[in-house]
Structures are given as structure tokens and as C-alpha cells.
């Protein structure tokens, strides 16, 4: 029975996508356009230079394309299924999270796991096509591939907790629209989605090291393209793991406090 409850929770948001073919077509079109544009952009930027900020053209293009693909891991539309925290807070249905057989924190985690597995299928398919087309470089060795996979897992774990903290903010503010907008911008900027962090000033890079965003994407992709050598991988993985522990403790505390503030709002 517990396995059945877990399966039902994990498939909530992916089912909304799979039952709406036009939405899937739009995702495919948008992902294709993004990959083509970023690949063209970075190829053009390196048209008259060999190496910039320690990156070759192939490394820069690989980084940019992988960043686009990685962004698909958690870009599902929870609003369509009316299963976002902010919607539950508005309609007063958040109380049902505390009446289900699954605790709210476990339901949230299982739902996020389902979303990430669905997003991973999209990212993996895009990676296979980009790799076959020669748009991205393959890992330099099996060891690099293994370290990258572990780092990517830790990075997504960190990202899960960051998004969880943002949703938990609804228990105090009821709405988190502004927080989500700030989070998306900060995540894309400080994790290196817009551009690798090495292109930014030293003070900006130093500032980003004190935040968890860099651990979500910049570290895994830097390991993949060789910007961070394998000799330094252990230290970077330890930092990612530390952020996982810190954020896990924080969100556990917030779940405990949030349970005391459950109220019914709106309809």
C-alpha cells in the first residue's frame, strides 16, 4: 500500500504533461530552439578566438547546451494540475496534505522525484541527440562521467531543497510569486545557466561560493567539461553534500513550524 501511495504521488505532475500532447510539443519546440540558439551564440562568440576565460569553443558550447538541457529537470507546470503550494494555500486545500496517508513532506518529496525523473527523460533524450550531432563533447573518461553523474545528483538534491524553501515561504506569506521570480533569476545567474561563472568579475565569483546555487549546476558541468579537474572533485562533492545536509535540516525545521500555521484560505 505504501508503494502504491508513493507511485501515485510521484506521477501527479508528469501525468498532467503526458495527457496534454500540445504542451509536450511546445516543450520539444522550445528545447530545440534553446539548444540551437545557445550553440550558435557561443560558436559565434569564439569565431575569432581560441580560448577565453580558460574555455575552448567546444567546452563553452558543451557547457551552454548541457545547461539548457539540465534546466528541463525541474521545469514542469504544477499550476496546470492545481497542485502547487501557492494554489493550495489560496484555495485552502493545503489542509488535505495533512489528512492524507502520506505526510506532507513525503508527498512533496515524492512528487518532486517524479517531476525530476520525467525531466531527466527529456534531458537525456536531448543529450543523446546533441551528442550524436556533435554539438556537445562526450566525457573525457569513464571517471569523469561517474563523477559528473554523482555531482549532478547532488546538485539536483540541493536545487530540490532550494525550491522547497521557496514553497515553504507560503506558510508565512501565503503567496510566493515574488520569491519564485527572485529565485529563478538568482538560480540561473549564480548557477551559471546564463553564462559560466568564470566570465564574471572575481568579487561575483567569490560571492557565489557562499551560496548554494553554484552547487546545483555550475559544479557538475565544470566537472564534465574539465574546468574542474578530477583531483579537485572530492572537495567540490563535499561542498555539495554539505549544502544538502544544511538545507535538509533547515527544511525539516520549517516543515515542523509550518504544521502549526495550517489554515484555510479562499474558497
From TrEMBL:
The keyword Transferase does not apply. It comes from the Bacteria. The chain crosses the membrane at residues 27-47, 117-136, 142-166, 178-197, 237-255. Keywords: Membrane, Transmembrane, Transmembrane helix. InterPro entries: ABC-2_transporter-like. Pfam families: ABC2_membrane_6. PANTHER family: SLR1174 PROTEIN, SLR1174 PROTEIN-RELATED. This is ABC transporter permease.
Amino acid at each position: 500500500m505504501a508503494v502504491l501511495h508513493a507511485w501515485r504521488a510521484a506521477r501527479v505532475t508528469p501525468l498532467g504533461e503526458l495527457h496534454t500532447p500540445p504542451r509536450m510539443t511546445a516543450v520539444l519546440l522550445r528545447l530545440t530552439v534553446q539548444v540551437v540558439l545557445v550553440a550558435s551564440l557561443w560558436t559565434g562568440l569564439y569565431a575569432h578566438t581560441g580560448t577565453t576565460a580558460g574555455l575552448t569553443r567546444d567546452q563553452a558550447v558543451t557547457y551552454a547546451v548541457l545547461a539548457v538541457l539540465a534546466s528541463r529537470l525541474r521545469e514542469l507546470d504544477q499550476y496546470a494540475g492545481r497542485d502547487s503550494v501557492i494554489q493550495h494555500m489560496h484555495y485552502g486545500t493545503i489542509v488535505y496534505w495533512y489528512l492524507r496517508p502520506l505526510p506532507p513532506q513525503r508527498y512533496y518529496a515524492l512528487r518532486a522525484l517524479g517531476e525530476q525523473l520525467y525531466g531527466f527523460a527529456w534531458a537525456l533524450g536531448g543529450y543523446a541527440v546533441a551528442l550524436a550531432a556533435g554539438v556537445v563533447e562526450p566525457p573525457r573518461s569513464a571517471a569523469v562521467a561517474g563523477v559528473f553523474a554523482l555531482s549532478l545528483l547532488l546538485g539536483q538534491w540541493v536545487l530540490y531543497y532550494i525550491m522547497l524553501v521557496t514553497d515553504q515561504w507560503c506558510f508565512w506569506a501565503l503567496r510566493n510569486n515574488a520569491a519564485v521570480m527572485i529565485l529563478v533569476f538568482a538560480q540561473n545567474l549564480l548557477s551559471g545557466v546564463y553564462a559560466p561563472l568564470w566570465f564574471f568579475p572575481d568579487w561575483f565569483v567569490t560571492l557565489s561560493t557562499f551560496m548554494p546555487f553554484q552547487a546545483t549546476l555550475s559544479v557538475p558541468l565544470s566537472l564534465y567539461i574539465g574546468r574542474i579537474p578530477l583531483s579537485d572533485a572530492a572537495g567540490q562533492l563535499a561542498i555539495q553534500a554539505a549544502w544538502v545536509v544544511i538545507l535538509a535540516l533547515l527544511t525539516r525545521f520549517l516543515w515542523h513550524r509550518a504544521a502549526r500555521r495550517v489554515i484555510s484560505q479562499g474558497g
